[in-house]
């Protein structure tokens, strides 16, 4: 239950706190009052109800820029047998062939979006497995969901295919056409290939032809010899590609020799790549060896990236599927866990942008704002400090959309039981 019931219509929230960086100010948390009228934050109002929020922390509604809505919630019927990356690939592949009809994908997407909305998310980019014929199944479902959820969650869809299937023609050309027709994002998974740069150039040629931004799964491994991130940055610089390029995971960078990693980071900065780290999924999968304690957390070099001015974000990734058995598309959970896993505390006051402003910029959605004129799409927690925020899951938060307090009742997992037999 929400920790407080707010009025509707015109009202004023007094004594809130928000990260200073979200107001482009210096410092940690700053106090502010917010006046709300006709669904927006306004400079001032006439006489109206005033509510003292007691120092509660407020955030603009979140952008979750890397998810897999098509895979979500299949764990009960397709569990990962050993928790490894290979186990995840095998389980998802088998389940996709056996079960991913349009009706199945739609039901699980709808369930996931209801969760994200209840937690306070306003925009989501989802990757969609796009090996034919799945691209012809999932993208129409995605387009239907985007229309159905318009005004609540802004949706973007990125295709997901392995780099060894990317070429100038062939099936990938058809997938690129499907993505373009749906207004999506061109994506793929990179790993070492003898002709990797040729395939990357073909990939960017498709993106240029269809005027698409791009989004890669990159180096999701603890093998330090895997370094396709550098190749992506080099090809972007060589081709002069001007669309946005997002690279996700980049795990192997953290286990490479320092000098090699720094060379790659310099290239990433020069190429202007956006980076998204997926700390919960990567901690779950990476360095998992039976009978052996993991030696690292799976996350990429986010501190070194931020120091170079690289746009770094964090996101949910998988939800209750073989790649991550847990999660609920809750960006406050992502913020809490990323802070712990990547030691974002004691690391400067700008990190809140990585959950709000940075992903919005990477995805090209409306920037978050707490200024007059902005939509009153807010997440308000009972917590009054970072320690309070991260100590508890904030299950009693308030979510406002267009100034109205929404019903945050989460869907019951039992609703999916019919899909799990």
Automatic annotation (TrEMBL):
Residues 179-404 form the Amidohydrolase domain. It comes from the Bacteria. SUPFAM superfamilies: Composite domain of metallo-dependent hydrolases (SSF51338), Metallo-dependent hydrolases (SSF51556). GO terms for molecular function: cytosine deaminase activity; isoguanine deaminase activity; metal ion binding. Keywords: Hydrolase, Metal-binding. GO terms for biological process: cytosine catabolic process. PANTHER family: CYTOSINE DEAMINASE. This is Cytosine deaminase. It comes from Rhodobacter xanthinilyticus. InterPro entries: Amidohydro_3, Metal-dep_hydrolase_composite, Metal_Hydrolase, Metallo-hydrolase_Enzymes. Pfam families: Amidohydro_3. Signal peptide: none annotated.
């Amino acid at each position: 239950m929400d920790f407080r019931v707010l009025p509707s219509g015109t009202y004023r929230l007094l004594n809130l706190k928000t990260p200073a960086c979200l107001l482009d100010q210096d410092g940690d948390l700053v106090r502010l009052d917010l006046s709300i009228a006709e669904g927006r934050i306004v400079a001032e109002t006439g006489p109206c109800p005033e509510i003292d929020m007691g120092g509660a922390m407020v955030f603009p509604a979140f952008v979750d820029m890397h998810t897999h809505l098509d895979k979500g919630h299949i764990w009960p019927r397709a569990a990962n047998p050993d928790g490894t990356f290979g186990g995840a690939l095998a389980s998802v592949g088998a389940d996709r062939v056996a079960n991913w009809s349009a009706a199945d994908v739609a039901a699980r997407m709808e369930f996931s979006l209801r969760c994200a909305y209840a937690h306070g998310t306003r925009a989501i980019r989802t990757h969609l497995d796009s090996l034919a014929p799945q691209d012809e199944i999932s993208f129409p479902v995605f387009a239907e969901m985007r229309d159905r959820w318009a005004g609540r969650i802004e949706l973007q869809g990125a295709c997901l295919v392995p780099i060894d299937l990317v070429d100038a023609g062939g099936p990938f050309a058809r997938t690129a056409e499907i993505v373009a027709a749906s207004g999506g994002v061109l994506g793929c998974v990179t790993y070492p290939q003898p002709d990797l740069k040729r395939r990357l150039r073909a990939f960017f040629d498709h993106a240029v032809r269809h005027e698409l931004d791009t989004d890669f799964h990159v180096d999701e491994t603890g093998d330090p010899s895997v370094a396709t991130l550098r190749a992506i940055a080099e090809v972007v610089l060589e081709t002069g590609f001007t669309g946005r390029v997002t690279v996700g995971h980049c795990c192997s960078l953290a286990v490479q020799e320092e000098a090699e990693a720094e060379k790659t980071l310099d290239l990433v900065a020069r190429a202007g790549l956006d980076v998204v780290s997926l700390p919960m999924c990567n901690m779950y999968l990476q360095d998992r060896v039976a009978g052996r304690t993991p030696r690292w957390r799976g996350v990429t070099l986010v501190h070194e990236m931020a120091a170079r001015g690289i746009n770094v974000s964090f996101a949910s990734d998988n939800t209750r599927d073989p790649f991550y058995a847990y999660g609920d598309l809750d960006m406050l959970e992502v913020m809490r866990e990323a802070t712990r896993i990547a030691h974002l505390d004691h690391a400067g006051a700008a990190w809140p942008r990585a959950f709000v402003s940075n992903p919005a910029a990477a995805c090209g959605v409306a920037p978050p704002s707490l200024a007059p004129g902005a939509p009153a799409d807010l997440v308000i927690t009972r917590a009054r400090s970072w320690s309070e925020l991260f100590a508890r899951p904030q299950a009693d938060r308030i979510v406002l959309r267009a100034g109205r307090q929404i019903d945050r009742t989460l869907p019951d997992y039992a609703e999916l039981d019919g899909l799990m037999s």
